[in-house]
Amino acid sequence: MPTPSSYVSVDQVIATASSIIEQVDTMDRAYFKEWVYLGLQQIGPNTAWYNDVTLYPNNLELKKPSDMYAPVDLALYDGNNHELRFTYRGLGRRLHQSGNNVLDEGVYAPEFGAPIDLSEDAYYFYLGTNSSQVSYALLKYLKYPVDEVGNLMIPENDVLPLSYFVKYMWYCRKDDKQGMGQWNNKWIAARNEVRGEHKTPSLLDATEMARTWNSLIQKARYKNF
């Protein structure tokens, strides 16, 4: 996913959308910012959304960053900076005994099938009762792009697709079936095109794939990063 060359404010998207919509009134513009946010969610992230952060446990909880769109990877470490093994358990806290006495007694022993339980909800990652050694966690995640005061920023190459989405939503508000059909198609085509741009491999990704595909010789592959 290539990184966009620059960001623009939501106001630029609103101005672009207004330039292709006739007779936009003040009430219409009041909805435009919300529509831009909804459209950006549907386009999805690119590498410019990447961030990493250190989280510290409190009562077996790791609070998620408020600007997080989606987690990418998580690692747990003890006070000596040694990585601890965990098993992701999905949503919510554990309800059932595991059937492993070592784990159920709150002992961290991955060699005996008792790694740390990790689960989550919308706001927290939850650690199992055998996680007393966890000193901190490193989280890689995708975040919403915002400026220094928290206003949403838009990748420059997303401006036109989002303007199409705003116009589609404008027709929805007017209950104009013909306009809705026409601009939904334009929006979907533009959205898919820019999604493809975001998924284009970087030069580093492409080089690594080429090395893998073009050689029949088995090489050491280092997967822990």
List keywords for this structure.
4-stranded mixed β-sheet; disordered C terminus; 4-stranded antiparallel β-sheet; 225 residues; 2 domains; alpha+beta
Structural category: alpha+beta
Question: In whole angstroms, how far apart are the ends?
Answer: 19 Å
The fraction of residues in strands falls at 15-25%
Q: In angstroms, what is the radius of gyration?
A: 23 Å
Mean pLDDT: 85
**Poorly predicted sequence stretches spanning 5 or more consecutive residues:** 220-225
The dominant shape is: elongated
Domain module count: 2
Task: Write structural notes for this entry.
The chain is an alpha+beta fold and 225 residues long. The protein has two domains: 7-47 and 148-202; 49-143, no CATH class. Helix content is 36%, strand content 22%. It has helices at 10-19, 26-43, 101-104, 159-174, 177-199, 203-213; strands at 7-9, 50-55, 61-63, 68-77, 83-84, 86-91, 116-120, 124-127, 136-143, 153-155. The strands form three sheets. The protein has a four-stranded antiparallel sheet, with no helix packed on it. A four-stranded mixed sheet has the order 3-8-7-6, with no helix packed on it. α3 (101-104) links the parallel β6 and β7 (116-120). α1 (10-19) crosses α4. The radius of gyration is 23 Å and the shape is elongated. The two termini are 19 Å apart.
SSE order and pairing:
Blueprint: E1 7-9, H1 10-19, H2 26-43, E2 50-55, E3 61-63, E4 68-77, E5 83-84, E6 86-91, H3 101-104, E7 116-120, E8 124-127, E9 136-143, E10 153-155, H4 159-174, H5 177-199, H6 203-213
Parallel strand pairs: 6-7
Antiparallel strand pairs: 1-10, 2-9, 3-8, 4-5, 4-9, 7-8
Helix pairs in contact: 1-2, 1-4, 2-4, 4-5
